Each structure stands twice: as C-alpha cells, then as structure tokens.
Amino acid sequence: MTVSEMFSQREKTFLSEYAFLTSNTKGREKSCPPCPNRTEFQRDRDRIIHSKSFRRLMHKTQVFIFPQDEHVRTRMTHTLEVAQIARIICRALRLNEDLVEAAALGHDLGHTPFGHSGEFAMQRFYNKDFAHYEQSIRVVEKLENNGDGLNLTWEVKDAILNHSGDNEASTLEGKIIKLADRIAYINHDIDDAVRGGILSLDDIPKELLNELGRGHGERINNMVSAVISESMDKPYIKMEDGKWEATMELRKFLFDNVYKNKTAKAEEDKAIEMIRILYEYFLIHPEEMPQIYFNNTTHESVERCVCDFISSMTDRYAIDLFRELYVPGMWKRPI
Question: What SS3 class is residue 61?
Fold first, then answer.
C-alpha cells in the first residue's frame, strides 16, 4: 500500500459521513499519474504554494494601500489566516483538511494589486463583471506555470470560485472557506485599523463586542466556536444565529467606518487612476507585456490579456512600471 493509499483509507475510517473523500474527486482536466506519497488535494496544496502567483500575494494590498507599517496585513498574510481558521473548523468537524487547506491557499490568487481598489478599477475599465474569484480560476487554469495552469482538482477550483458573494460551493469544505474568509478579514481589518489610528475599539458598538468579544483572538475563537457547534455532525456549514447576526453587523460597521474611511482610502483614487493609465497604455502597446500575456492575444482579446497582466501585478511592480513609463528619470550631465 502506498502512502497516498494509506491516507485515503484513513479518510474513509476517521472522517465524518459528510466529509468529501479524496477518492471521490471528479479529478483534473488533464489526467496525470497518482502520486505515491500525497493525496490529490495535498498535491493541489503543494502546486499552489510553489506557484508564482502565490508568492506575489506577499506584495499585494489587503485593505491599506502600500502601508509603511510592515505589520499591516497583506494578501499573503490574509490567505494564511484564512487557511488556519478553515483548518481549525474543518478538523473539529472531521471534514477533509487537505481539500480545505488547498482551497484556502488558492482562494485569492487572482486578486488585483491595491486590493479591492484594483478590482473596482478592472470593473470600470475592463468589464463591469470582473471578479477576483473568477480571475483566481483563470490563474490556476490558464496563466500559471507558463500558461499550462496548475491543473487542480475540480473540488478545489469549485471552492475557490465560490468563496465570495452569494456563491455556494459544492462541498462542505468549500463552504467553510467562505466563512473562514469573513472571520479572518473582519478581525484582522479591525486590528489593522486600530493599529493605523483609523479606529478605536471604543468606536465599535458595545453590544457587538459583548456578543463577539473585545480582543482579537477572543472574537475569532467565539466565531469559530459558533460555526463548529452549529455545524457538528450536520450536512451544512453555519454559524449560530446570534453570533452570525453580530458578525454581519460588525462587517457592516467596517464597511461604513474603515473600508470607506477617507484616511484609509486616501491613496485609492491615485491607484485607480494609475491602473487606468497602465491599462490604456498596454492596449496600445500589447507587445510590451511579458510574453505569456502577449502570446495570448493571438486567440483572446487584447483587453482580456491586458486585464490578466495588470491583475497579476503586485502593488510594487505596478508603481515601478508606472514610474518607468511616465515619470522622467534623473538626467545626469557627464563630468
């Protein structure tokens, strides 16, 4: 018996009747020989971690654009926090941790530079229906690995695609990602906003703190516990009603007081305008894009390919590229 077969047998023995077993996967678009040491979802996790798009998350904005404080979350640290929360819930419910971890690590691979400001820019200048979760699927199917994609399993891609908005994943593990994502960003955005002087804990309605907890770790633990207790041995993933209502109220509070805050968004208009200028530049000069994006213009629209290129950028890369194209360099007179 191989190691991967041993793992699959353990799943059948120890996981909940509602867990998605690796042996039931719908598989990959391109078949490949099984790995003797890893299950299919473990392979997906590793493919994501070793991808360029995953590494770029460390230099992409979460909420606060290009912060000087290095302790402020990036898209990478957000992703790791989502994965940690999702695994805690998944383990407690005896669901498939490998599936939930792979999906959590891949859920934001298609996110634009400058966080949701970049997403708004793509909706304004490229297509009103642009969504980062759909771009994440495009990354893992068409853009990563020099255009060959990561060839992930159907279930991991389903969880990535359906982690946001009104979308619903097909597996319980996928449904956990949506809740873990919200638990993570609601709490770390409070932490970052307080750190940045934009928010004080005293600004948050007392009834929400009384229900969810005053401390960062306390709130996360209470939310996670409310998911586990409500979903244990059930064919669904839910948070207890009281905690869920308070969580959504806290999320609304953040939208009103942090995400739309003038101080927090002071650089947003600049970022959006910079993306507009870069987008329009490469529409005219697509041959100046990296080869992988330019090559795709032979069978896809230039607009689609420029969107792919800009969406892949880190904040730093976008700023440096803009500076190179539009900011005069220092002219030095020879001695």
Answer: strand
